[in-house]
Amino acid sequence: MSVEKLKEAHRLLAQFKYTPGTVEKGYANRTLYVNLSENKVAEKFVIQEMKEKFIGGRGFGLKLLWDGITENTKWDDPENEIIIAPGPIAGITQYPGAGKSYVVSLSPLTHTVIDSNVGGYFGPLLKFSGFDALEIQGKAENDVIVFIDGVNGTVTIEEAPLEDVNSHILVEQLTEMYAANEEDKVNVSVVSTGAAAEHTLIGMLNFSFYDKRRKAVRIKQAGRGGIGTVFRNKKIKALVVRGPRIKGDLNHPADKTLLDKAGIKLHKEIATLDNSQNKMRIGGTTYLTKIMNDYDILPVNNFKFGSHPAAKNITSDAFIKYFNLTGHDGCWYGCTLSCAKAINAFELKTGPYKGQKVLVDGPEYETVAGVGSVCGIFDPEYIIENNFYCDTYGIDTISFGTIMAFLMECYENGIINKEITGGLELNFGNAEAAMEVLHQMARGEGFGKIAGLGVRRLKKLFVEEYGADPAFLQDIGMEVKGLEYSIYLPKESLAQQGGYGLTNKGPQHDEAWLIFMDMVNNQIPTFEDKAEALHYFPMFRTWFSLNGLCKLPWNDIVPADNRTTAEPAKIPEHVQNYVDLFNGVTGMNITKEDLITQSERVYNFQRVFNLRMGFGTRKHDQIPYRSMGPVTVEEYEARPERYDRQLKEKVGFDPEGKTTEEKMAALRKYREDQYQKLCDAVYKRRGWTENAVPTLSTLQRLGMDFPEVLEVVKRYL
Questions:
Q1: Could you give the CA distance from residue 256 to residue 583 in angstroms, rounded to a whole number?
Q2: What is the torsion angle, in degrees rounded to the nearest 10, for the CA atoms of residue 240, residue 244, residue 248 and residue 249?
Q3: What count of other Cβ atoms lies within 10 Å of the Cβ of residue 636?
Q4: Are 470 and 514 in the same domain?
Q5: pLDDT tens for residues 618-673?
Q6: Which domain holds residue 119?
Q7: Number of compact structural domains in the chain
Q8: Is the residue at 583 inside a domain?
Q9: Which of 38, 281, 390, 499 could disulfide-pair with 395, CB 3.0 to 4.6 Å?
């Protein structure tokens, strides 16, 4: 069906006119509110206190969601919101990685607040269309598209019955529909999901950008926490923004020379050093697979093991031959790191599009290891195909892979069988069965619909329905707070165990990735050292989410003399770059210490938000034992020298003559005790109680002692 026919079927439900205005010092100074239940559109003005305390991005999303819901709101209530916000630095073209958006909502998986970051053009184009955030509340009766025309100053809600739901088709249809002409396609961005998002709890969002070189629409993913499921629950088919033509000064920065200086410096580093460091411009983030495997931290078979001989089949060398490397691959203007790789004309072997040749965005490391090694699958073409279908169906590849790995271990332990799975043999390594589960998720049928509940609910189901051992499932079910683990093996890194368990939203590595500092380089040997790292790095990475920045240009490319600096893990030259960027855009005069304080405010606010929703105390920070050590005899005996040596040197336990079970029990007691000591040290460093609650003095120090915040905290003190 032609785009014209699709458009003719639209029914206008609401129209709002506004004056686009200009962005000043990184802010549009207003947000856009859309209520789908009432077909209402309005704008809200951003007060100075909101900019000072919440900065932008994730901070704006948290504040708007806090104000929009109550402590009794559920993820599928109409009053739940989806907020998309870019941040004050987002949209600059001088510095790599400055096009990120942050999405905030109540999660179907965790039942509390979730945030997820994403590339693509939507966030910057939203801001340049006049809004620092888009806040969506309510539920439509039928599928709708919200269109923000930042050129003509109109916002419409349109009933859209005929367009495809799956993203790879929908983004092409809507880019064609809403762009004024071929040249204008680069100024249009679409947020969408897919068919599986409405049948599972692990739906994600795709944010589009038009690739002029390939003459195709590409997508990046806000993957974590099931926000795509919320999107479809609200009957949103798509969000579309059409912004002005991008120029280097649309943020109207206070001092553009600071941006230019920092950008020129980093562009030179990338050009001269990337090839000798991580080769991101050639292989994207797939370079990580070999490193993880070499250091025994690549999750294999539901995080049992950290390496596998077949991992050589899914390293960057395996994928580079598929990547179309004919030019720039950034997901926002000016990003010379160019990690957003793509595969042209990949012929699908399964599913409803079998035989078609499609564009595949990625895969990135998390997908390679997530749908690959963690499931015991080392076939690059399976990974590429799974990547494509997860994207177009609107499924988070991280959650999908971790769920499938859990199911495979349950299957091999006889907890579930072919009768329960509908005939699927879910052994580790069975790529065909994994693909069928994914297709069933999209159809909303069979075992795929059950799998889409997520690890936490599957554990409960298997205990109640099939008599499974709850302790064993707790040990091997790789989730915390209801969110599935991202794809790193933390068994030998206590700091990374804390980096997963002590997060606000669940085990996502964008808060703290400390494996190398802790396990490989031994830079943080004491509890106090680890606690300091688990304070600084989550706060530093939070700052990216407030400002619309990607973390990769910070530490995936480093200055040649970085090793000689006093704190090489922090990449101090790049930290100063970010201080200069913020000051250059906003006209403020923050220091690197102020940067951390800005993040502390929002981080502690998010912790209190969890408490408000009934979560967020110490018990919610506990992790499955598979994160800490060997759950099964098979795991211990795969690395007996390592574990025996640790028992002697760290535990003071002589393994000679002991059974494997006895040795495992001694090691477990030690490692669980170490984790509790880490919790104590981290809570103290963050200014929290032993129950993980921010103290009143901490909130007062940060200026976050709003009456409604203190009211929540006092319930837990």
A1: 10
A2: -110
A3: 19
A4: no
A5: 999 999 999 999 999 999 999 999 999 999 999 999 999 999 999 999 999 999 99
A6: 3-242
A7: 3
A8: no
A9: 390
